[in-house]
Amino acid sequence: MREITYLQGIQEGLREVLKTDPTSVIYGQDVGAFGGAFKVTEGLQAEFGEARVFDTPISESAMLGAAIGMATQGMRPIVEMQFADFITTAMHQLLNNAGTRHYRTGDAVPMVVRVPSGGGTGGGPFHSEELETYFCHMPGVKVVYPAFPSDARSLLLSAAQDPNPVVFMENKTLYRSVKERVGDDLTALPLGKASVRHEGDDAVVITYGAMVHEALRAVSELHVTEGYEVMVVDLRSLKPYDLDTILAATAATSRVLVVSEGWRTCGYAAEIATAINESAFHLLDAPVHRLTAPDVPVPFAKSLEDRYRPAAADIVKALRDLIEL
Amino acid sequence: MKLLRLMIQARRVDERLIKICRQGRLRGSAFAGIGQEAISAAVAVASQPDDLFAPCIRNLPLHLGRGETPLGVFRQALGRAKSPTGGRDGNVHYGRLDHGVYTMISHLGSMISVVAGGVMAKRRQGKDTVGVAFVGDGATSTGDFHEALNFAAVFDIPLLVIIENNHYAYSTPTSHQYRCHRLADRAVGYGIDGYSADGNNPAEIYITVRDILNDIRANPRPALLEADTMRMRGHGEHDDFKYVPETLLQVYRRRDPIRMGIRGMQAAKLITDDQIEAMELEIADEIDRSARQALSEEEPLADTLTQGVYRDA
Ligand SMILES: Cc1ncc(C[n+]2csc(CCOP(=O)(O)OP(=O)(O)O)c2C)c(N)n1
Ligand SMILES: [Mg+2]
């Protein structure tokens, strides 16, 4: 066993794909010799050569279009967006071109798009966005969002084995802050499987990405202060998502808080809340609550961003409201 | 001869589609490439089996030349279960990867980078593939046109981007589309070669395309070709194209690519009137049978609506 960071988890996943799948390539802006804006691909070009790991012009649409072309001709492209925010200049390639292709033609489009996501870094409105709702709304596209190093590694392998376009979201605040002891066993994790990170029966927090860690901090605080036992479900895959685990958690706790770093209106949290209402309304002791970012652009100043972004203290408060309702 | 046959076959398929559309038997509209047949036919004839293509709205001869049948085209337009897209998409949004032909999406310019990536993959597999992407004068104003050409140039991808300049993008004349003198001149900005040709002269466009493809096949890098032509009907059949001056249509009517092709071949004694007539009869017969069959076929079952969004792992 050795300790690795979230970033290393992603990197080990990438290295494993390059090693085991000769049709795979990694490209994006500054991902080659430089190793990427966050150094996720550091060393990979030196190890695998310029044909397998290479820099592209700043052309998000051409990058994704080319990925569709490669994927349909026997290759497995893994494309890095420098920041999630910039994929908006190429949304049509994902939604319309990649996402509709199998349905219309029957052709497989095995490609992975890595999107460094989320705020909390003082990145301001254009280097902090959390866009899972957009991706999850696209027919034909799958979305994963690991919160732990081992999951990052395994989900990268599964994303790179899937015959569909997969958006691999990775959270920038977790890159170096989250560490985990892992073995060398590299196995792919099936998509669509959540993980219960903390057991409890007073309530459940259903969340993903960086908010998993905020939730874990919140539930241990609540345990110390009030003695509550709160379950934490880490969704890991956002589309498809693990409805069975969500419903089992609902049945076990009867009180559900969905937490998301994304925007509120029509956001991903609304989807989970609705799914629970449709299938498990009779099991609830309280309405499903949502804790999300407000519907405002991601602000720059720390005072504003701290208020903007859900954190452990907000989750503690929301859970108290929910449990004591 | 093959080129002429493709042009005539495409023209007759388009004419039949227009008829079916007028009869109200087609959902949406029909989008004809009448007047522009020489360009795609030339590409089809000059291409090799491993080549890849991104056809756009007015490239029926390319589809036919790469192995699609009139039956497949009618099925597609009619949304039949047996259409190339199984009725999930319509009109000109079809293609078959085993023919090297990508199924377009509507977003103008977005398919150029797809072929670029496809050609990159084929080249890595040791094939001597070249790609050809078609766009109109209007599509040259998209960001995707720029991104893809620059991308292809940086990676020396053997990709020919053909601009079919038919003077209009829907109702918008080229004067409202760009300010440059010739679109082919934009090649300079990408560090690649730009060419202009008469897209209504089958011999000229064929030789031009053939030479460019030979060149970039041997010396991988992209190229830009602007072919002058004219859309002889509306944008689609719903469009009366009153915005096109009759005088302009007159000019291009005299320069109809099929007539120019026939005249050229007759002058060189490569074809007789009897041969033309026989060709027309044979084409008409296949089109008639295909149209009737497609019209008689079923649409996909509604119960299949949600199938096949994802590929099973
Ligand atoms: C990005 C985008 N914007 C708008 C449209 C709607 N549209 C479809 S065809 C067309 C005109 C295309 O003109 P041009 O590129 O010159 O091709 P032509 O029809 O003349 O062959 C327009 C505006 C579209 N398909 N894609
Ligand atoms: Mg035009």
Broad structural category of chain B = alpha/beta
Estimated structural class of chain A: alpha/beta
| Multimer state | heterodimer
**Text of the CATH class of the largest domain in chain A:** Alpha Beta
Looking at the overall shape, the CATH architecture of chain B is: 3-Layer(aba) Sandwich
Main beta sheet strand tally, sense and closure of chain B: 5 strands, parallel
Work out the strand percent of chain B: 5-15%
Spatial ordering of strands, largest sheet of chain B: 1-2-3-7-6
Rg of chain A computed from alpha carbons, rounded to a whole number of angstroms = 19 Å
Show unreliable segments of chain A.
none
Protein model, in words:
The complex is a heterodimer of chains A (325) and B (313). By secondary structure, chain A is an alpha/beta fold. Chain A has 2 domains: 2-182, Rossmann fold; 195-323, Rossmann fold, CATH 3.40.50.920. Chain A has 12 helices and 14 strands. Chain A has helices at 6-20, 44-48, 60-71, 91-98, 101-105, 132-136, 149-159, 210-226, 243-253, 268-280, 302-308, 312-323; strands spanning 2-5, 24-28, 53-55, 76-80, 111-117, 142-144, 165-171, 179-182, 195-198, 203-207, 230-234, 237-239, 256-263, 289-293. The longest helix of chain A has 17 residues, at 210-226. The N and C termini of chain A lie far apart (44 Å). The model of chain A has no long low-confidence stretch (mean pLDDT 97). By secondary structure, chain B is an alpha/beta fold. Chain B has one domain: Thiamin diphosphate (ThDP)-binding fold, Pyr/PP domains (Rossmann fold, 3-Layer(aba) Sandwich). In chain B, the strands form 2 sheets. In chain B, strands 1-2-3-7-6 form a 5-stranded parallel sheet, sandwiched between helices. Chain B has a two-stranded antiparallel sheet with strand order 4-5. The termini of chain B are far apart. Chain A binds chain B through residues 51, 56-57, 59, 61-75, 77, 89, 92-93, 96-97, 100-109, 139-140, 142, 161-164, and chain B through 52, 84-86, 88-89, 93, 95, 97, 102-103, 105-107, 110-122, 124-125, 143-144, 147-148, 150-151, 154, 308-313. The structure holds thiamine diphosphate (TPP) and magnesium ion (MG).
